Write a sequence for this structure.
């Protein structure tokens, strides 16, 4: 089928011919595009060639788990020297591919639940990693030097032509399918069901080669659900301090929240404490965040103009459908997310990124990696960084920029990049350390000399702890930044090294602020300030539209 | 179980406070109570008595109490702490809460 004017020489169509050969090998194992579940291992053997760049869809929420499990039934003699590219190493099946010696190289972003297994593979020298990426960084490489030959993806539904509906969890799928489909790669989708008519089309059939109706629905993790019942008084105090000392001070309009309890506390203080401070309409209007159940009270109270998400959240489907003025939805009301575009928004278009970390070093670098657990990054660094390509101003951006006192060759503004941590993790493990575990020589060596730092100290503008706020953007030297970090590091070994005179001087200049300095009364810091006390409270706020997953329901 | 006492230099407490004593927190697993009392003690120090279920953290306790005495005028008060394994991050909050209650009479 050659179009007039398009040259199609033999040399330039080798890849296309190769694709045709692979699909020919599938032959009668598929009826049209449709493969029966039993035939999947055979089909995988025929469409994947040893040496391929293979993309397995799976992030921290959604997994093409049926296809991954079928792939893991194959052996080294079936497939070897695979260059695996994927967002998240999440499933036991992913680890099996390494244990079976099928993988020549892996390039990925995050290994949350398999962090310990990955650390073990590194120790056993069975983890040939290219690099650990941030999400958009890896998607970008799908268009450059890591274009997949085959992509195994997950969708909610397919119609008879092979059009796909991705439902609330669009997530990474478009970022995987586009570079694969437009480079004569093979796109193989597992779907929960095949239907006659889709609610909306997210991926056109033209970009999909094979479809299997999986015998079980794809794995979906309720990753962003935080039970208000687990929020502590200390977290409420920190939330009050952050609201007054950062949100109010800089008039933060557009933002991203991490997934921790600290930021959940902030969300639940907006309709109570925030309302009392008169901040409604002045802060927290535009969000790049997943549909967090703890945002329900703020949305119901009219704080939120819009929410764009990188992924869905189990149980929020009916709520988001009923709030299409706030969330991005299909014409039918079905929730829409897009990880690549969400990360892009979080990079360029927000006043503030605020998140937590497991370790922060004396220079403000943070990491979630320990010697026994290699997790990686995910998307936080795409947002928790200074986008030097930004040119549009906002109040917050200019105000932090002025504090940072940029030189004549620097951007006038800065994004607020805030780390909000308690000085100790559970089990009395200090959050603040002189040196990150991520700097361990064995980890650096496995990563070709790059220590897996989540957020770099140079990008961080503020650290909030239960002790107060350190404004790193306003520090004028490395020594001053270290003193400011020690000042809010509490009674960790790092904090105990602070000098009283230095801390007092920093406090006088407003670089270090105690709760009282930003107008917070610690006596008020109590869970009773939260707009909802538990999951049941969130359901009530939602007028019964939020359906919490079973593990969060105890009534 | 560990028990210790020490007095820390502190600027004198305000001549008037809302209450003669104040209590913050509860003695329960993972929590602690702080009792703050005024009167009848030297006005230049904050006198502290700590009883904690988790031994081995005396240096951290003393550092936290010394900082508190330095940051807030609490001279002439007696601080009694009953700790049932509260996380370190909770200590300062309860101290500040008891102080707030004493001065401003909250709660």
């Amino acid at each position: 089928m050659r179009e007039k004017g398009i040259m199609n020489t033999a040399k330039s169509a080798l890849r296309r011919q190769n694709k045709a050969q692979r699909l020919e090998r599938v032959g009668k194992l598929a009826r049209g595009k449709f493969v029966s579940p039993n035939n999947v291992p055979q089909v995988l053997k025929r469409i994947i060639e040893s040496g391929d760049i293979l993309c397995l869809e799976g992030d921290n929420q959604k997994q093409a788990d049926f296809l991954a499990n079928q792939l893991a039934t194959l052996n080294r003699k079936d497939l070897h020297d695979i260059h695996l590219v994927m967002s998240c190493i999440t499933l036991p099946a992913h680890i099996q591919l390494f244990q079976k010696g099928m993988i020549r190289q892996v390039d990925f972003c995050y290994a949350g639940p398999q962090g310990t297994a990955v650390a073990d593979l590194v120790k056993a020298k069975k983890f040939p990693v290219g690099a650990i990426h941030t999400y958009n960084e890896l998607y970008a490489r799908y268009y450059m030097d890591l274009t997949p030959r085959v992509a195994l993806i997950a969708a909610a539904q397919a119609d008879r032509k092979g059009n796909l509906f991705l439902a609330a969890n669009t997530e990474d799928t478009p970022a995987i399918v586009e570079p694969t489909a437009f480079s004569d790669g093979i796109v193989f989708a597992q779907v929960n069901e095949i239907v006659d008519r889709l609610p909306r089309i997210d991926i056109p059939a033209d970009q999909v080669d094979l479809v299997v109706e999986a015998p079980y629905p794809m794995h979906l993790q309720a990753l962003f659900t935080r039970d208000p019942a687990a929020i502590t008084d200390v977290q409420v105090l920190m939330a009050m301090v952050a609201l007054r000392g950062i949100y109010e001070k800089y008039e933060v309009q557009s933002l991203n929240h991490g997934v921790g309890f600290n930021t959940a506390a902030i969300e639940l203080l907006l309709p109570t404490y925030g309302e009392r401070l008169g901040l409604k309409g002045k802060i927290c209007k535009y969000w790049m965040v997943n549909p967090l159940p703890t945002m329900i009270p703020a949305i119901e109270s009219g704080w939120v103009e819009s929410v764009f998400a990188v992924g869905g959240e189990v149980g929020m489907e009916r709520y988001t459908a009923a709030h299409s003025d706030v969330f991005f939805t299909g014409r039918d009301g079905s929730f829409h997310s897009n990880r690549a575009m969400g990360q892009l928004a979080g990079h360029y278009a927000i006043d503030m990124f605020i998140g937590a970390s497991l370790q922060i070093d004396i220079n403000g670098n943070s990491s979630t990696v320990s010697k026994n657990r290699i997790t990686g990054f995910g998307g936080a660094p795409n947002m928790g960084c200074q986008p030097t390509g930004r040119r549009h101003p906002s109040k917050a951006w200019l105000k932090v920029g002025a504090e940072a006192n940029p030189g004549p060759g620097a951007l006038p503004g800065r994004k607020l990049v805030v780390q909000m941590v308690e000085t100790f993790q559970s089990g009395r493990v200090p959050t603040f350390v002189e040196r990150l575990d991520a700097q361990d020589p064995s980890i650096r060596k496995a990563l070709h000399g790059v220590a897996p730092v989540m957020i770099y100290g140079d990008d961080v503008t503020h650290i909030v702890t239960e002790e107060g706020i350190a404004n790193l953007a306003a520090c004028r030297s490395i020594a001053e930044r270290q003193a400011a970090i020690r000042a809010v590091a509490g009674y960790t070994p790092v904090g105990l090294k602070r000098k009283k005179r230095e801390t007092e001087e920093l406090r006088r200049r407003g670089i270090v602020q105690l709760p009282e300095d930003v107008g917070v009364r610690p006596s008020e810091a109590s869970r009773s300030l939260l707009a909802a006390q538990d999951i049941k409270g969130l359901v009530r706020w939602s007028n019964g539209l939020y359906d919490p997953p079973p593990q969060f329901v105890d009534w | 179980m560990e028990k210790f006492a020490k007095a820390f230099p502190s600027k004198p407490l305000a001549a008037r406070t809302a209450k003669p004593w104040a209590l913050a927190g509860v003695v329960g697993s993972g929590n602690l109570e702080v009792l703050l009392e005024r009167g009848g003690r030297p006005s230049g120090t904050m006198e502290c008595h700590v009883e904690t279920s988790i031994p081995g953290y005396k240096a951290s306790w003393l550092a936290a109490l010394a900082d508190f005495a330095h940051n807030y005028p609490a001279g002439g008060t007696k601080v009694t702490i009953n700790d049932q394994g509260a996380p370190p991050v909770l200590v300062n909050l309860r101290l500040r809460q008891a102080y707030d209650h004493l001065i401003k009479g909250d709660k």
Remarks:
- The CA atoms of residues 23 and 35 of chain B lie 5 Å apart.
